[in-house]
Structure formats: structure tokens, C-alpha cells
Design goal:
Length: 690
């Protein structure tokens, strides 16, 4: 497998993170590795026993980075990436597969996003991290349990559960670039058989751009308020009901691009990226007749307003210049329901085979209004999706230590689309996914697995009325994933590793064309089409080691090689063998936690990432870069304080890139434009618990 090795500079940066281990006393007795339970599987498993590649970001990881949003912690998990192009990253990629943006075309996600059982795929702005217990990232297709929204994998955000005893917390935080936030948490019994938890946070920052024309430094800033609540009821006969609800109000700016690719913009009509989302779920669990049952329903409603200054400058900037704004207003409602039955010891088939069967349905409605300077009238569209699926899995022991797993899912996907340009579609797809795996326990905390899984993604259509007819529709994509993995756990260490090869057929690719207007300026049109084939292969490694009671080290590594086969772009370019977009060939993170004094702990971590293409339709790349993060945490009784820093070396890197002509000074010659990533961030938080 041709995979490029880490650059020497990256290896040197990673080595910095392990230096604090020398502060530990190697003669002290080892501290056991904490056991983590993964909830986004058919049966809840410990992380070491999960026969697939899973990365988990814990609450401690989130706090150590001072993270408020999902994009700020994803670099902790190898072979996971994100694309911005907005105030926050809405779109995620796993193993090089996933969307990068959405304009007016309907979107089927390759990477699912679930928060407390609610499907929020494709609207990642809602993925705030206040009071989150852990983030589970399942890499590879989830064709049995999650189906069409998990071709590449799934991100599952799990918030903290209500507690049996009363507790609370108040936290104040400040950071550079005008960052500040207030968080409040209350939790405890509501009555004898019920517990509740309520969390609220409001935060803001100025962003990392200065607008020299308007004369302010907050046109790309964030203003976000999130409220979450959970209720848990215990009923008779081993049954329970869990309610979860959330609300997000994001009133963010979007002023990220400049003609000179610097952090100083000249736009006279800075953009915005607003989102209001309300969501909720109800989950019932019970046991009857030796069978475990689960019924779950979720509902999410979002109002999204996304707009930007298309010319990025002010009127009169240049005699050849143009002025334009583009805005997308979406109303989106998603409803899901699921029913599942699973065997217990008393209901196994032949006293040996465990089984799970279930049914799932999804209904989504999206109404769009586009307001564009160069359009004769506002563009409107209505888009509906319906999915119905049945699935099942069996786990059969074939020896004392070896288990054979079969899983499958049948799904019917239907869609309906109509718009003001007279475009209409009513496609239907029958989709099949599943998994076959063999897992074996070797004793002493070691195990291994081999698996072959099939994932799928529904077809769709492009809504732009300016596209040629043959570019309007695209078909389903399928993916085969062959994977082998090992896990090993001891008193001092935990190791998880996996190698994989994914074969993609009828790949759905985000492409683009540029239409030249009559005045010489250009319109950038993005659309989705099918390429012939592609492959994604690589390795994922996660190693933790306890050096005693005072220190823990970790290393996480992802290697990735991708390519398209028989792919000709919309421009007629032969891209056979070309790397896929958003697929860096290496990602690595190494770090250590060290207890310096009673109550005082240090975390330091260094990360490295290779360069990668931003799109399948042009050759603009990100840069390879390394980052250094650190935090110092002090706790005494009910009080806690943390000083944190991200990207402490102030490394320049990019989180979105395009290629087109937008500068009148050079006659609108096509070249790359970039959205900068987060610069050096430092902050302090102080909290009191009771």
C-alpha cells in the first residue's frame, strides 16, 4: 500500500508532546486505563471490544482544548477532516469521503451526525460541545444500523446523563479575539423515579478577520447560545424512558475570503451564517419475554440563513469590478422513528446466537429561497425525502473464542423536488447494505477482527437551472470496505489498530463549472455527479500508555491513500489516479497528561497533518502543517480553573479553498482562494461546582 511517511519536521513536533513523561515516577503502581462504552452500536460495547474502527473524544479531551464546537476537536481522531466555507464547519469527511459544502442543490450526507438520538446530518453548526460526555466517531460504512447517511461513517455526540444526586456548575471563560462565555448546569432527582439535567451556554468571539473597509474586527465572529435538557424516568419491570431536547441560536458573521488571501477583508456587505435549531427525542427501553426492546423518535427543525458578499470588495474598488451578494434561506424539518428488538441470554437462537432486528423511517422536508443579485427573481424550491428500512444482525460463536457476525439492511429511498425554474424530480432507489465479520478473543485483553461491509448512499439531482440537462441527475453510490483490526489492553496500556481498503463505485463527486457573464465576470456553479470508481485505503492507530499514577501518554495516527479510477472531470480533464479531495495522507497526534502537583495537571499535545486537495474539480491544495496545544488545569474543592491554548505556534493553515477568477485587478484570472483556519487561541475558564 503506497503511503507516504511523516515528514521529519512533523515527527520532531510530535516528539515534543512526549517530553513531559519524564516527570512521572516509573516506580509508582500503574493506573488502569479508563473503560469507555460506545453507544452508537447495535449493542453497547466497550471501546476495546468493538469490532470496528472507532475514535472517541472524551469530556477531558474537550475541556483540555477549551473547545466549544465539534470542529475544534476533530483533529484528535485520525482520518477525520472537515470543510468550512461558513462560520463553522457543517460538513465532515471520514477516510476522505464526505461533502464539503451546499449551495442550492439537495444534499444527502456521507457522514452522519447524531446528537442524543436526533439526526442532524448536514447542519453541523448545531454541534456545540457544552456538557458533552463524549463524541464517538465510527469510521467506515455503517450499512446495517445507519444506512444511507453513513456511507463513510458516523459522528455520534452524547451529552451527559442526569444524575441521581443534586449537582450543578457555573463556569465563566474568556479568550483572545474577544472570546467570552458563560455556562450553567443543574442536575439531579426530579422525583423518586425521575432525574433531570439542564444546561445553558452563551458565548461569543470577534472571529479572526479584520474588515478594513467597514473598520471593524467582528464581521466573521460568532455569537451562539445553546440550551440542552434531559429527563430520565425509571418505570416498573426494567423499563425506562429518556427525553432529550436542545436549542441552538447562532448569529454568526461570514466574512472569510479576501482577494489577497489575507485575514484583512474589504467587503462592503459582509455575510452572515445564522442558524436556529430546535430538536428533541424520546427513547423507551424495556425487557419482556427475554427480549430487549427499544423505541426511539426524533424531531429537528432548523431555520438557516447563509449569505456572503460575492465580490469580496466594496463598490468602486476597481473600474472593472462588479458588486453582488448571494443568500440562501432554508427551512428544514427532519423526523425519524426506530423500533428494535435484541436477544438476551434467554432468547438466543439455539442457546448460542445473539440477534437484533429493527425498522427505521426518516422524513425530511427542506424549503429553500435563494436571493441573488444577478437573478431576475428569487429562486425557490421544495425538497422532500422519505426513507424506510429494515435491518438485522446475528452473532454466532463458532468456537469458544471466535464469533461470526452477519448483518444486513434493506432501504427504500424516495425523494421529491420542485423549484421555481420548472425543474422537478421524483427518484426512487432501492438500497442494500450490510456486514460480515469474524472476531476472535485471544485472552489477556487481546482480540482481533476481520470484516467486509457494504455501504450506500442514495442518488440525487442538481437544482441549478443553469446546468446542462445531462448534469442534473446523479445515481446512488456504493462502497465495499474490507477491514482488519486488533485491540489489546493491559494494566498500563491500551492499543487499537485497523487497516482498511474501501472500493467505491459510481462515486458521487462535487464538481464545478464557471460561467462567464456578459460583463466579463464569472459565476461559480457547484454540482454533484458520478465518477466511475475510486479507492480509499489506510491505517488507524490509537495507543495509550500509563507511566504511573502521575502521567499518561497517547499517540494517534492515521495514514490514508486515495485515488479515482477512470474519472474525467466536468472540464474534460483525465483525473485517473488523482487523490480524492479532503484526504490528507497522514494525520497524527501525540500528547501527554501529567499531574505536576496535587490538584495541578498539565496536558500538552502536538499534531501534524499532510496537505490535501480542496476539491475534485480543481488543483488548489491546503498546506501541510503542525500544531501545538496545551492546557494547565487546577482543581481545589468545588473550584476549578483551566488555562488553555490551541495552535500555540500560530501556524497558518486553511480550512476551505476554491479556484476561480474574482479579482478585477488581474482581469479575473483563475487562481486559488483560501479561508484561514484558527490562529493562536489562548483562554482561561473558572468554574464552581456544588
Amino acid at each position: 500500500m503506497p503511503i507516504r511517511l511523516l515528514k521529519p519536521s512533523a515527527i520532531g513536533g510530535l516528539a515534543l508532546a512526549v517530553v513531559p513523561l519524564h516527570a512521572a515516577d516509573s516506580d509508582e503502581p500503574p493506573t488502569a486505563i479508563e473503560e469507555i462504552v460506545v453507544t452508537a452500536t447495535l449493542r453497547e460495547d466497550t471501546l476495546g471490544a468493538t469490532a470496528s474502527s472507532v475514535g472517541v473524544v472524551t469530556a477531558d479531551d474537550i475541556s483540555a482544548r477549551g473547545a466549544a464546537h465539534l470542529e475544534e476537536i476533530l483533529s484528535a481522531v485520525p482520518n477525520v477532516n472537515y470543510a468550512s466555507g461558513a462560520s463553522r464547519a457543517r460538513y465532515y469527511q471520514i477516510r476522505g469521503i464526505g461533502e464539503r459544502g451546499q449551495f442550492d442543490e439537495p444534499l444527502n450526507s456521507s457522514v452522519g451526525l447524531v446528537v442524543d438520538g436526533v439526526d442532524l446530518s448536514g447542519i453541523g453548526t448545531v454541534a456545540t460541545l457544552t456538557d458533552v460526555e463524549q463524541v464517538e466517531i465510527l469510521r467506515g460504512p455503517r450499512g446495517t444500523l445507519y444506512g444511507a447517511n453513513a456511507l463513510a461513517g458516523l459522528i455520534n455526540v452524547v451529552t451527559r446523563a442526569p444524575t441521581a444526586e443534586p449537582e450543578g456548575r457555573l463556569e465563566l471563560s474568556v479568550a483572545n479575539y474577544g472570546g467570552m462565555g458563560v455556562t450553567g448546569v443543574v442536575s439531579g432527582p426530579v422525583r423518586e423515579s425521575a432525574r433531570g439535567r439542564l444546561v445553558a451556554r452563551t458565548g461569543r468571539d470577534n472571529g479572526f478577520v479584520e474588515n478594513a473597509h467597514v473598520g471593524v474586527d467582528d464581521t466573521d465572529g460568532h455569537q451562539e447560545t445553546a440550551v440542552r435538557g434531559r429527563l430520565s424516568f425509571d418505570t416498573a419491570d426494567d423499563a425506562s424512558i429518556d427525553l432529550a431536547a436542545g436549542f441552538l441560536d447562532a448569529d454568526n458573521g461570514y466574512d472569510a475570503f479576501s482577494l489577497d488571501n489575507v485575514r484583512t477583508t474589504l467587503s462592503d456587505q459582509p455575510g452572515h451564517d445564522r442558524q436556529t435549531t430546535s430538536y428533541g427525542s424520546i427513547t423507551a427501553r424495556w425487557q419482556r419475554g427475554g427480549v430487549d426492546g427499544l423505541a426511539q423518535a426524533g424531531l429537528a427543525a432548523s431555520d438557516i440563513a447563509y449569505g456572503y458578499d460575492e465580490d469580496w470588495v466594496y463598490e468602486g474598488f476597481h473600474p472593472w469590478g462588479y458588486t453582488s451578494t448571494d443568500e440562501y434561506l432554508r427551512d428544514r424539518v427532519t423526523a425519524t422513528a426506530e423500533f428494535r428488538l435484541a436477544s438476551t441470554d434467554a432468547s438466543r437462537i439455539g442457546d448460542a446466537t445473539d440477534w437484533v432486528v429493527g425498522a427505521y423511517t426518516l422524513r425530511q422536508e427542506v424549503d429553500l429561497r435563494r436571493i441573488y443579485t444577478f437573478a431576475d427573481a428569487d429562486f425557490t424550491s421544495a425538497f422532500d425525502i422519505s426513507r424506510i428500512a429494515v435491518y438485522g444482525q446475528s452473532d454466532t460463536p463458532i468456537s469458544d473464542r471466535t464469533t461470526l457476525t452477519f448483518g444486513g439492511r434493506l432501504e427504500r429511498h424516495t425523494a421529491s423536488y420542485d423549484d421555481s425554474a420548472g425543474v422537478g424530480f421524483d427518484p426512487e432507489d432501492g438500497l442494500v447494505g450490510g456486514r460480515v465479520a469474524v472476531s476472535r478473543e485471544f485472552g489477556g485483553g487481546a482480540s482481533a477482527y476481520l470484516s467486509v461491509a457494504r455501504g450506500y448512499k442514495a442518488g440525487g439531482f442538481n437544482a441549478s437551472g443553469t446546468l446542462d440537462a445531462d448534469l442534473r441527475e446523479f445515481g446512488p453510490e456504493t462502497l465495499w470496505n474490507a477491514e482488519a483490526g486488533i485491540t489489546a489492553t493491559g494494566p498500563r496500556y491500551s492499543l487499537r489498530a485497523a487497516v482498511f481498503h474501501m472500493q467505491r463505485d459510481d462515486v458521487q463527486i462535487s464538481s464545478s463549472v464557471v460561467r462567464v457573464r456578459g460583463d466579463g465576470s464569472a459565476e461559480f456553479i457547484q454540482y454533484t455527479g458520478n465518477a466511475a470508481e475510486g479507492f480509499n485505503q489506510g491505517l488507524e492507530l490509537d495507543l495509550e500508555w500509563n507511566a504511573g499514577d502521575r502521567a499518561r501518554a497517547f499517540v494517534r495516527l492515521g495514514l490514508l491513500r486515495t485515488a479515482y479510477i477512470d474519472f474525467v472531470s466536468a472540464r474534460g480533464e483525465d483525473l485517473d489516479g488523482r487523490d480524492q479531495a479532503q484526504a490528507p495522507r497522514y494525520q497524527a497526534l501525540a500528547g501527554a497528561d501529567v499531574d505536576l502537583l496535587p490538584g495541578l495537571a498539565l496536558r500538552i499535545e502536538a499534531g501534524a497533518r499532510d496537505d490535501y486537495l480542496f476539491s475534485d474539480s480543481h488543483a488548489v491544495k491546503s498546506v501541510a502543517y503542525q500544531v501545538l496545544n496545551a492546557s494547565l488545569h487546577y482543581a481545589s474543592g468545588p473550584w476549578s480553573a483551566r488555562v488553555w491554548g490551541r495552535n500555540l505556534l500560530d501556524e497558518d493553515y486553511y480550512v476551505r479553498g476554491f479556484s476561480f477568477g474574482n479579482d478585477p485587478r488581474d482581469g479575473y484570472v483563475e487562481h486559488g482562494y483560501f479561508q484561514h483556519g484558527e490562529p493562536r487561541r489562548v483562554g482561561v475558564s473558572v468554574s464552581r461546582s456544588w
